[in-house]
Amino acid sequence: MPTRKQRRRRAKGRRHEYEYVFVDEEGNEVEVDPDDVRAERAVSRNGRVRESSRANVRVQAPSWRRVAKRGLIFAPLMFVTVMLIDSSLTLPQVAVQTVFLLAIFLPFSYFMDSFMYRRYQRRAGEPAAKR
Question: What are the residue ranges spanned by the domains of the chain?
Fold first, then answer.
């Protein structure tokens, strides 16, 4: 449901009378029926949204190299998190806990990448990769 501010803006935009014209090849201004403009605008908006939302999404095939890079990004964050959660641990103990978390995180991350890739292939209609 639109807010009061959104309703006021929409009403303000509809309050004004606009003149719909376009310029033809000869340079003359030709009036256009406002109903035709609304219909074209609605179709183009829907078409653009569908195309752009699906055209920009490209899920890459899963790879251990990408997972390792992700692990290098998250390892310091995990280290700091473990340190903040349990301040009684020494640095070697925190490091062991971080390695344990990475041992769980890396295979799970690869599994999620492969799941998303298979799902993307199914939606795109591409045949599944042979193993």
Answer: 12-55, 64-124
